């Protein structure tokens, strides 16, 4: 069974994230980045499915990412966790692509990889849209199930449990299938020292748009259905209000402040 995890390289939430002044797109090359935290759950699910399917010789896990040169770090993290190989789609023409174009690139790459099971995280931590798995499923003409909390594979049958606020659903599908998993699907494993060292020897291929037979005018900012027209920096935090209780009126001042600002 060939499992492919679609993983995204995103700006580090703790770093100084910013937009490019020339086109208001996210600056992915000039800031620190990492594998999207929610995609780590997808990697964990893929590895668990592979581990339970046999002795390891019956399946493989490939990390697929689309992005600039630095996006290779997302693949590296997946390989360190235990994936077998990586594919990096890197082309200058991809810059500015929206979810629609991204789904086209992923679908073309997945078709070339001939994946049996495609696994996504529930959403990226930068865009937080969560629509790409469904778009890829539609483009590939494959069944798609989103927000899986538990996944088991037996032969070509896939059983997915989806946990909602008030109930849980169990859905069955057949391979090949496109799946997204939630952050309830299992705690992602930490890369071991052995895994970190082994990752250095695992194969990683780099593909261009031409390799996927995609014309540059099908992707990129020019073909995007959405556009960021303006970016405004968050204003600095103002100083807080200090309540002093020198004459015993501190409690009354605090209640007045909370009431005036409608906190009570």
Distinctive features:
three-stranded antiparallel beta sheet, globular, seven-stranded parallel beta sheet, 6 helices, alpha/beta, 264 residues, 23% strand
Tell me the Rg in angstroms: 22 Å
**Main sheet specs:** 7 strands, parallel
Low-confidence stretches: none
Taking the alpha carbons of the first and last residues, their distance comes to: 57 Å
Strand order of the largest sheet: 7-11-6-1-4-5-12
Secondary-structure topology with pairs:
Layout: E1 2-6, E2 9-11, E3 33-35, H1 37-53, E4 60-66, H2 72-81, E5 85-89, H3 99-113, E6 117-121, H4 132-140, E7 144-148, E8 150-154, E9 157-163, E10 168-174, E11 177-181, H5 193-199, E12 204-207, H6 250-260
Parallel strand pairs: 1-4, 1-6, 4-5, 5-12, 6-11, 7-11
Antiparallel strand pairs: 2-3, 8-9, 9-10
């Amino acid at each position: 069974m060939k499992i492919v995890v679609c993983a995204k390289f995103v700006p580090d939430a703790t770093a100084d994230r910013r937009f490019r002044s020339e086109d208001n797109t996210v600056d992915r090359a000039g800031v620190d980045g990492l594998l999207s935290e929610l995609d780590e759950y997808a990697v964990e699910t893929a590895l668990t499915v592979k581990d339970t399917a046999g002795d390891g010789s019956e399946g493989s896990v490939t990390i697929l990412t689309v992005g600039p040169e630095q996006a290779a770090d997302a693949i590296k993290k997946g390989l360190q966790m235990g994936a077998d190989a990586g594919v990096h789609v890197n082309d200058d023409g991809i810059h500015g692509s929206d979810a629609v174009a991204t789904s086209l690139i992923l679908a073309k790459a997945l078709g070339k990889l001939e994946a049996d099971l495609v696994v996504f995280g529930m959403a990226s931590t930068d865009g937080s849209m969560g629509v790409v798995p469904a778009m890829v499923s539609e483009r590939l003409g494959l069944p798609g199930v989103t927000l899986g909390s538990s996944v088991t594979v037996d032969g070509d049958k896939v059983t997915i449990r989806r946990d909602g606020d008030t109930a849980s659903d169990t859905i069955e599908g057949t391979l090949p299938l496109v799946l997204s998993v939630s952050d309830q699907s299992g705690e992602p494993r930490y890369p071991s020292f052995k895994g970190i060292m082994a990752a250095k020897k695992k194969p990683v291929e780099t593909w261009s748009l031409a390799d996927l037979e995609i014309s540059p005018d099908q992707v990129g900012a020019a073909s995007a259905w959405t556009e960021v027209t303006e970016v405004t920096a968050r204003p600095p935090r103002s100083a807080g209000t200090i309540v002093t209780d020198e004459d015993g009126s501190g409690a009354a001042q605090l209640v007045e402040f909370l009431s005036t600002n409608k906190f009570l």
